[in-house]
Amino acid sequence: MREGRFAAAVVGCRMGRNHALTLASLPDFTLAGVCDLNAETAREVAERTGGPAVYADFDRMLKELNPDVVVIATPTDSHSRLTIRAAEAGVRGIYCEKPMAVHMGDARLMAKACAASGARLVVGHQRRMSAPYKTMRRLLRSGAIGAPYLLRASCAGDFLSDGTHSVDSLLYLAGDEKVRWVLAAMFRRPNALVPAARRYGHAVESGMMATIEFESGLRAELLTGEVRMPGRGYQDIEVFGEKGRLWRAGDAAQSAVLVQNEEAGGLRVPELDPPDGSNDGLPGVFRSFAHSLRTGEPHPLDASVAMRTMEVVMAAYESARLGERIELPLRQDRFPLDLMPSVKEAEE
To answer: Which of 136, 249, 295, 345 is the most buried (most CB within 10 A)?
Structure first.
């Protein structure tokens, strides 16, 4: 630590630009270095964040800076490798962008390496710390819409890269209840977004639909990519209860949350949870990270939470691959899409 601050380094300066800007703005951290394979990208971020050291070599940065905290915002297929290297280098905390890894095998290796070194690992499913989602969970707990019976999420993108946020949000709104089973179907074809059926270093599908059932019988539905609900925003989330519904109409919605129940007037805007230092996006995530490192208290985005989200995501892929309902715990450590014929092979 430097003068009571945690020395932080960011690797992956395209996705990690906002992380670097946030760390540089907080009194808990000193942004000591930024790293990217494209040195010019790293220099541009350094110029905007007070001039931290610039690197194009991750191992060299770890050795020379000996940071307390490393933020990994690189393509998904590098998450496991870089996390393990940071843990072995002795860092105290690792923030890894979502999704945690490409498959369960890598996610388990990440968690094992951090447990062995004592590094705290958190994964960037930041929506569960935001005011809109905290408000929705509070309303659910207070019985504002009665007993919930169905949650639904719809979003653009592939299920691993974007659907992971949807899955984590639904698990959070369900009180992180244990999932009993997952049933899913998908299709794959080249399209404008993913012409080669790959993204962020891994195979992707064109559209996915999944149903999950929790231990209580509560169910959730997810629609991503080309089967998402037409006209809906990114990360559109609904919760249906016996007496009404809650709706988060996407990240860019004019109203952060809408509620409809037995009160007259249709959909209306509830009062959001007030600012508490942790529910304002990335700043709150990193303030909470500093607090966790100082006190040893769990972080809301702890890897143990992310592992449950990862398991549901991978179970959906495995269900689609096998055409079967997958009971948890998941026993497949490999990425199910890698076990299927590629789009190119299917066309041939």
So the answer is: 136
Distances (CA, A) of 330 to 143, 186, 318, 321: 32, 19, 9, 14
pLDDT along the chain (348 residues), means of 10: 84 97 98 97 97 98 98 98 98 98 98 98 97 97 96 97 98 98 91 63 93 98 96 97 96 93 82 93 97 97 98 98 98 94 56
For residue 164 the two structure tokens come to 């992971």
With 0.85 as the threshold, say if the pTM is over it. Answer: yes
* One domain, residues 327 and 187: yes
Identify whether residues 325 and 227 lie together within a single domain. Answer: yes
How many Cβ atoms are within 10 Å of 112's Cβ, its own excluded? 12
| Any domain includes 227 | yes
Closest to 138 (Cα-Cα) out of 299, 279, 251: 279
**Could you tell me if 24 and 95 are in contact, meaning their C-beta atoms sit under 8 angstroms apart?**
no
The reply to whether 344 falls in a domain is no
Q: Specify which residues 208 forms β-bridges with.
A: 186, 224
Is residue 294 located within the same domain as residue 314?
Answer: no
Amino acid at 47: E
In which order are the strands placed within the sheet that holds 326-327? Answer: 258-260, 244-249, 236-241, 148-155, 219-225, 207-214, 179-187, 326-327
What is the dihedral angle through the alpha carbons of 205, 211, 215, 217, rounded to the nearest 10 degrees? 170
Q: How far apart are CA 25 and CA 287, in angstroms?
A: 11
**Number of domains into which the chain is organized:** 2
Task: Give the pairing type, strands 69-72 and 202-203.
Answer: unpaired
Write out the DSSP string of 165-217.
HHHHHHHHHTTTPPEEEEEEEEE----SS-TTSEETTEE--SEEEEEEEETTS
Domain CATH number, residue 101:
3.40.50.720
User: Which segments of 226-269 are extended strands (E)?
Assistant: 236-241, 244-249, 258-260
Three-state DSSP state, 37: coil
For residue 128, give every residue at least 6 positions away whose Cβ sits within 8 Å of its Cβ, in sequence order, or none. Answer: 168, 169, 172, 300, 301
SS3 34: strand
